Amino acid sequence: MEILTLDNGLKVLLNHQGGYPVIAGSFFFPLGSSADSREGITLLTLRTAFKGSLKYPPEEFSRMQESSGSPFVPDVSCDYSLVKFQLVSERSEDYFKLLLDTLTGPGFREGSFQVERASLLASIRSKKESSFALAYEEVMRKTYPGHPYSKLPYGTIKSVSSLELEDLKSWFSDNFLPVGSVLSLCGHLEGIERVVEEFGRLKTVPAVTELPPCPITRTDEVVVRREGSEQSFILVALNASSVYEKSYPACKLLNTLLGEGIGSVLFQELREKRGYAYSTGSLFPTRKSSGRILAYIGTSPQKEGDVKRELHKILKNLPDFITPERVKRAKEYFRGSYLLDHELRSKRAWYCGFWEALGKGWSYDEEFVEKVLSTTRGELLEVAMELCESPRFTVVVRDE
């Protein structure tokens, strides 16, 4: 790994890999939906801006980009946003020139804006067909009341419909390029240092990074209607660590033990033993502020009451399920999944940039695995005890 710090503070991570003459990249910006002035503005701005550069007509820009690599693909999370891409090594100078032109003169054209806004609105409407999306939205809004995390990255029909092209231009002008941005590259990078040094002339602006803690403070349950649904979907949110807390690796391992893979507690107890679940599992998104472990299950409406009681029983008695055998399985599953997810150059570039953008440093990618695998059963029990005694927020999605 080679690290360049450019004159404007931009960090460039160069992960040299031999073999195919291909480069995968992730450009991380420490500016996520939590900083949105209006919900969805970050995502819509990036999707419109990175469609091209004002320096070239859209058709010419697309032709130049396709001759050297892939289109720019923006994405937005609570704590950061990024642009992913891939390119042919021998055309890196042309490709990065296009990226630089886009950052200095983004493609804010009315036609592109109208297409991207319509696409985002269609995506928001389609989420009404997803029980998980409906439950997740309710969890974010109700367990982070008044907190920046309550803002959905894709926004709402109302917020996105109200955005105009001038709003996006102003947002980009005020917020790009934020201090702390990271360009992470992986692949055949011979001579790339000279090419990326050009990014040092970009002007940087301050980024808002302070986020207050926001734990779940009371146990509650809400019902969300999904018209026409033939199942009941239950999502339970529990308090969990932020990425900066000491217990973060233990929470990751506990989530694996609880709901990842066919050997997990939820799968074995709710699906294999009792036949309750269409689908079941858990996830633990990494967050700068207060995190959440989300346990979910889809079942038939007739079994909803029994399923909900059994799910809460498992969560309330979670320490009882942390046996040496389950801890061993969870570690093996976590290690295999993490290594498998690093097979592609695009994922290696993503992970290094991700940890660097969060302030943990690119080297935490390997350190994180070691911390998870060295977590003791006693440490897991301690975290599980805290989790099962803390408030829980439940969302039930069904047609009623």
Would you mind describing this structure in some detail?
- This protein is of the alpha+beta class and 400 residues long.
- It is built from 15 helices and eleven strands.
- It has helices spanning 41-49, 58-66, 92-104, 110-126, 131-143, 157-161, 165-175, 192-196, 248-259, 265-272, 304-316, 324-340, 345-357, 364-373, 377-389, and strands at residues 2-5, 11-16, 22-29, 73-76, 81-88, 182-187, 220-225, 232-240, 279-283, 291-299, 392-398.
- The protein has a six-stranded mixed sheet with strand order 1-2-6-3-5-4. A five-stranded mixed sheet has the order 7-11-8-10-9, sandwiched between helices.
- Helix 1 packs across helix 7, helix 9 (248-259) packs across helix 12 and helix 9 (248-259) crosses helix 14.
- It is globular.
- The mean pLDDT is 96.
The string of secondary-structure elements, in order, is: EEEHHEEHHHHHEHEEHHEEHHHHHE
Task: Enter the CATH topology name of the largest domain.
Answer: Cytochrome Bc1 Complex, Chain A, domain 1
The proportion of residues in beta strands is 15-25%
Strand arrangement across the biggest beta sheet = 1-2-6-3-5-4
**Strand segment tally:** 11
Per CATH, the architecture of the largest domain is 2-Layer Sandwich
**Residues in helices, as a percent range:** 40-55%
Q: Which structural class should the secondary elements be placed in?
A: alpha+beta
Give the class-level CATH name of the largest domain.
Answer: Alpha Beta
CATH superfamily of the largest domain: Metalloenzyme, LuxS/M16 peptidase-like
Radius of gyration: 22 Å
User: What are the low-pLDDT stretches, counting only 5+ consecutive residues below 50?
Assistant: none
Shape: globular
Mean pLDDT: 96
Largest sheet, strands/sense/barrel: 6 strands, mixed
Task: State the end-to-end distance.
Answer: 55 Å
User: How many separate domains make up the residues?
Assistant: 2
Number of helices: 15
